[in-house]
Design goal:
This protein is about 40% helix and about 20% strand. By secondary structure, the chain is of the alpha/beta class. It is built from 13 helices and 19 strands. The strands form six sheets. It has a seven-stranded mixed beta sheet with strand order 4-12-11-10-9-5-6, sandwiched between helices. Strands 15-16-19-18 form a four-stranded antiparallel beta sheet, with helices on one face. It starts with 10 loop residues before the first strand and ends with a helix. Bound molecules: pyridoxal-5'-phosphate (PLP). Pyridoxal-5'-phosphate binds next to helix 3.
């Protein structure tokens, strides 16, 4: 599969690239790069606003992305955003502001990415809602505590798959329990959609946010899937062109479909690129790759433990192939720099999950995350790189 990805033909610090920073962003296959380049070379125009040929092609290319998203994830509505972060902020503004008031409860978890914490804290500052956090115990959500926290909740926002631990939360149970108390559910699926095909309608969540760039699509684009029920409770957040039906000096009326949440010129080339990525990934057997990658990541985790590292990822069935670890004394950044010198890219830091770092009792971790194009030889190079770091720092 690496042949589909031009980046793997380059050297990094004189060595073949071993890219294990996939939870941060994934590499792009040629078809995505070509589709975007072709759009700018051949069809570039603004969407929705003109009758000329280029405008028609641009509109078709952009709307194809939405069509593919709705088909792939079986969603009633797909609003195109700049990514997961904007999608969650959109829910806070377009749904939260109009459906939550003083004293209302929303439930988050200690393993949320900052993008699923900060928007709610900002909303709480202006509307005095109560935020309850479900604790993480031994790297997993405490489901007993979740049930207690649910009492009186109007909204539950949960990361489907953790970007730090790779753990897949029991989202089916979370949705069933939340629905039983009448709470709406938002899933942060940024790390889930790259690894599993989700049937949004079947799953029964109300909102699902994710980013194209974590599934081989372009940066700067993502989606918010919305159920029929939730869509009727949302009001536009940003005003401007494209989201209106009529405008007079006295007031405006809005579009009734997804466009009412997409004010202004959208990410057209990115939409074209994401459509190409969605078509490309529809030919990939995610399930078998997931099994393969999880097995590679589990072996890596064991090897790291054997070398004296603390590994925080449990890598159980269904979890993403993400290995977060630390050496007892070597600073994560020193570790990652020495790996980079050998062409191996890993991430270090708090991974935008400071509350989870606090819970783990660390300021950051080293994270090796595997994706479709990674194979056992990448794991070998990584582990021999680790050995070199250990020798150098001995
Ligand atoms: C679990 C999770 N949620 C949200 C985000 C934010 O995604 P984006 O920066 O693409 O908006 C990320 C990105 O790392 C993530 O891993």
């Amino acid at each position: 599969m690496k042949q589909d990805f031009p980046i793997f033909s380059r050297l990094v610090n004189g060595k073949p690239l071993v890219y294990l920073d996939n939870a941060a962003t994934t590499q792009k296959p040629s078809c995505v790069i070509d589709a975007m380049s072709e759009f700018y070379s051949v069809s570039n125009a603004n969407v929705h606003r003109a009758v000329h040929t280029l405008a028609g092609e641009a509109t078709e290319g952009y709307e194809k992305c939405r069509k593919l998203l709705k088909q792939r994830y079986n969603a009633e509505y797909a609003v195109i955003t700049s990514g997961t972060t904007e999608a969650i902020n959109l829910v806070a503004h377009a749904w939260g502001k109009h459906n939550l008031s003083s004293g209302d409860v929303i439930v988050l978890t200690e393993m949320e990415h900052h993008s699923d914490i900060v928007p709610w804290q900002m909303l709480a500052e202006t509307s005095a809602i109560e935020i309850r956090y479900v604790p993480v115990t031994d790297g997993k959500l405490d489901m007993d505590a979740f049930e207690v926290a649910l009492e009186g909740a109007k909204l539950v926002c949960v990361v489907h798959t953790s970007n730090v631990l790779g753990v897949r939360n029991p989202v089916e149970d979370i949705i069933t329990l939340s629905k039983a108390v009448g709470a709406k559910v938002l899933l942060d699926a940024a790390q889930a959609v790259p690894h599993e095909l989700i049937d949004f309608r079947e799953l029964g969540a109300d909102f699902m946010a994710f980013s194209a760039h974590k599934m081989c699509g372009p940066t700067g684009i993502g989606a918010l899937l919305i159920s029929n029920d939730a869509f009727t409770e949302m009001e536009p957040f940003m005003g401007g062109g494209d989201m209106i039906d009529t405008v007079t000096l006295e007031g405006s009326t809005y579009q009734t479909n997804e466009h009412k949440f997409e004010a202004g010129t959208p990410r057209i080339a990115e939409g074209v690129g994401w459509a190409a990525a969605l078509e490309w990934i529809s030919n990939v057997d995610l399930e078998s790759h997931h099994t393969r990658l999880l097995s590679i990541a589990s072996d890596v985790a064991e090897q790291l433990r054997n070398r004296g590292m603390a590994v925080y990822s449990s890598l159980g069935p269904g979890d993403a192939a993400v290995v977060s670890f630390n050496h007892p004394t070597i600073h994560p950044e020193d570790f990652a720099r020495l790996l980079d010198a050998q062409g191996v890219a890993v991430r270090t830091g708090h991974h935008c999950a400071q509350p989870l770092m606090d819970k783990l009792g660390v300021s950051g971790t080293i994270r090796a995350s595997f994706y479709l194009y990674n194979d056992a030889s990448d794991a070998e190079v990584f582990l021999s790189g680790v050995d070199r770091v250990l020798e150098a720092m001995a």
